[in-house]
Amino acid sequence: MATRTENPWIRRTLIGIALLYLGLFIFLPLVVVFYTGLSKGLAVYFQSFSDPAALSAIRLTVLTALIAVPLNLVFGIAASWAIAKFDFWGKNLLTTLIDLPLSVSPVISGLIFILLFGAQGAFGPWLMDHGIKVIFAPPAIILATIFVTFPMVARELIPVMKAQGNEEEEAALTLGASGFQTFWRITLPNIKWGLLYGVILCNARAMGEFGAVSVVSGHIRGQTNTLPLHIEILYNEYNFTAAFAAASLLALLALVTLFLKSIVEYRYRAELKAAVRTENV
Amino acid sequence: MSIDVKQISKTFGTFKALDNIELKIATGELIALLGPSGSGKTTLLRIIAGLEKADHGEIYFHGKDVRTEETKDRNVGFVFQHYALFRHMTVFENIAFGLKVKPKAIRPSPEKIKAKVHELLKLVQLEWVADRYPSELSGGQRQRIALARALAIEPRVLLLDEPFGSLDAKVRKELRQWLRRFHDDLHITTLFVTHDQEEALEVADRVVVMNKGKIEQAGTPEEVYHNPASVFVLNFLGNVNLFHGRVEETKATKMYVRPHELTVSRNPISANSIKAKISFINPAGSVVKIDAQTSDGQLIQAEIAQEEYKSLKLKRNEEICLTPKNITYSEYDI
After folding, report:
1. Contact criterion met (CB below 8 Å) for B300 and B291
2. CB A136: neighbour CB atoms within 10 A?
3. How far is it, in rounded angstroms, from Cα B216 to Cα B229?
4. How far apart are alpha carbons B205 and A88 in whole angstroms?
C-alpha cells in the first residue's frame, strides 16, 4: 500500500475526475444504448431481433466466434508453450509477431485479406477459377476475426507458463507419463484460469470486431453481416430503436464478459502468484 | 541396477558442461556427485534420466544401451531440487500419479494403488498429509513426498538433484541421516547431487568430485578426504592452509595442511614449527577454531580440541607455535 501523505483533497479530486470520466464515457453511453433500445417498449425491442437480417447477423457472429475462438485456443497454447518452455532461433520474432494484430489498425488487417484473396489479390484468380468465394463471404470474415484475435490467448498464457517452468512436466515424464498425459494432467490444469481468461477476452473481441470485418464483409444483408455491421446499417438507415436494441445485445455481452473476467482474473492472479511462490520455495 | 557412463560429453552453446565423463556405478551403491555450481553434476544426472541428451558417449543400464530410450521408459526415480510436486493435486494424487498413468494392461487396480500410496506415505513417515496440497507442506515434508512419488514406480535407480539444497540446517541433517538409513533398507542404486562436502562425505558410499565438467576423483569418503587426487579435491573437501617452501635450490613446493592437522603449542616442538600471533578465536563449537598470523602476514587456520584450548589458556594476540602433523605436497616446479 502506498503511503498516504498527500493532501486528502488531491486524492478526492483525482478520484472524482476518474469517476466523472468513467461516468461520461462508459456509464452514460451504456445507459443510452439500453434506453434507446427499449424506448419504444419491450415488444418493439424483441421484434427487432426476429427480423431475418438481425437473426442472420447473430448467427454469423456466433459462427465466427465458434470457429475463431477454438482455433486461437489451440494456437495460443501451442505458441505460448513453445515460447515459455523452449529456446529456439527466432523466439523473439515470434513473440513480437504475436502482438502484431494489436498494434496494426483493424482496417489494415482487413485489407491484408483483400490483397491476398480479393479479385486482384495474390490467390484471387485461382480461387475464382475454382469457384471458391472468400472475400465478401463468411470465410473472409472468419479469417479476419482469427487474425485480429489471435494474440488474446497466447498473451495471457505466456507469463503463466514462464513462471511455472517445466519441472512439473519433467517430473511427470520421469514417472512414466506420455507427452499427451503430461499435457492433459499437468500442464492444462496448471494454466486453466489463465486459459479461460484468454478465451473470454478472445471471444469478446471476436464477437465485437468491426474494422477488419467491415473491410472484407461486403455488407450483404442477411448474408455477410455480423452483429456490429448490422448495427451500423440500421443506424445509417435511421432505424435507431433496432440499432440500439442490437447494440444492447453486444453491450450485454460486454457486461457478462466483464463479470466473468473479474471472477476469472481473481483466480488467474492466484495461479500466477502460486507459480511464483512455489518457484521460490 | 548398475549404471555405466561412457565418454559422455555435453555442450550448451559455448559452455562445456561435461567433458568425456567415465563412471561406473555398481548395483545398490549410494553415490554423491559433489562439485561447485557449474561443474556439470546436475547435467550428468539429467542425462542419466534422459531429460537431457548427451552430444557424445553412451549410457548403459545393467549393460543395456539406453540412449534411444525416452525418459518415460527408463524407469528412473527423479527428485527435483525444488521438488516439482504437482501443485493442483493432493499428496495422495501426487504419489499415485506414476501408477495411474501406466498403460491399462499393467495399471494396478484403484485398491492396489491406494494401498501402495499408503505404504509409501508410511515409509516416509507422513501418513497424515495424504489429503493436503503441496503448498500446505513444509520444505522437509515436500522433499519426502517427492521421494515417495519417485519410489511409487519402483524405479531401477533413484536420482536426487540437490535433495537437501533448499532446507534449513537442522532439517538437512535429519533428512541426510534418514536418506542413509533409507538406502540401507531399500538398497536401490542411488545418485545424489550436492555442493555440500559434509553432506557427500557423511551420506555416500562413494563420492564423485566434479569440477568444470570433469571428474577430479571418485572414491570412498575416506579416500577422497585423506588421499585427494588433486589440489581441487583437497581444497573442496575442507579448509586447508597453504605454505610455500623450497625442497632444493631449484625446486619450490606447495604444502597443504588441514586446520585440524596442526598442533598448537606455546614453544616450538620441532624444526617445522611456525611462529604466529593469534588474531581470532572461536570457541563455540565441537572444536575451537583459531586464526593466527605469521610475521610476514600469512593467515593460518587451526582447529584444536576444547580440552587442549582450556589447558593452554590461549588468548588473543598471544604468540603461539604451529606444527604440522601431516602435510600434502604438490606442484613441484622450478
Report:
1. yes
2. 19
3. 7
4. 41
Q: How far apart are the first and last CA of chain A?
A: 25
Query: What interface predicted TM-score (ipTM) does this complex get?
Result: 0.82
Quote the CA–CA distance of A199 and A38 in Å, as a whole number: 31
Which residues from A are below 8 Å from B75, CB to CB? 176
Chain B nearest C-alpha distance from A280 (Å): 8
B166: which DSSP letter?
T
Q: Give the pLDDT score at B246.
A: 65
* 8 A C-beta contact, residue A200 and residue A264: yes
Q: Under a CB-based contact definition with an 8 Å cutoff, are residues A187 and A169 in contact?
A: yes
Three-state secondary structure along B16-83?
A: EEEEEEEEEECCCCEEEEECCCCCCHHHHHHHHHCCCCCCEEEEEECCEECCCCCHHHHCEEEECCCC
What angle (nearest 5°) sits at the alpha carbon of residue B324, between those of residues B318 and B328? Answer: 140
How distant, in Å, are the alpha carbons of A6, A49, A73, A253 from that of A66? Answer: 50, 20, 11, 15
Q: Which triple of cell numbers denotes residue A97? A: 509477431
- In three-state secondary structure terms, A133 is coil
Residue A281 is nearest to which of B72, B88, B166, comparing CB atoms?
B166
Give the DSSP per-residue string, B105-118.
Answer: GGPPPHHHHHHHHH
User: Which residues, 6+ apart, have CB-to-CB distance to B278 below 8 Å?
Assistant: B290, B291, B292, B314, B315, B316, B317, B318, B319, B320
Distance CA B267, CA B289 (A): 19
Q: Does the global pTM surpass 0.90?
A: no
Cα dihedral A143/A145/A147/A151 (nearest 10): -150
CB contact under 8 A, B101 and A186: no
Four-point Cα dihedral B303, B306, B308, B309, nearest 10: 80
pLDDT at A88 over 90: no
Q: Do the Cβ atoms of A281 and B87 come within 8 Å? A: no
Q: Is B127 exposed, middle or buried (0-12, 13-18, 19+ CB in 10 A)?
A: middle
First and final C-alpha spacing in chain B: 49
All three cell numbers of A280, joined, read 521460490
Interface test with B, best of A169, A170, A174, A278 (most B CBs within 10 A): A174
Nearest-CB residue to A174 (from B71, B102, B134): B71
Task: Look at residue B173 in the predicted model and tell me its pLDDT.
Answer: 85
Mean pLDDT of B244-269: 80
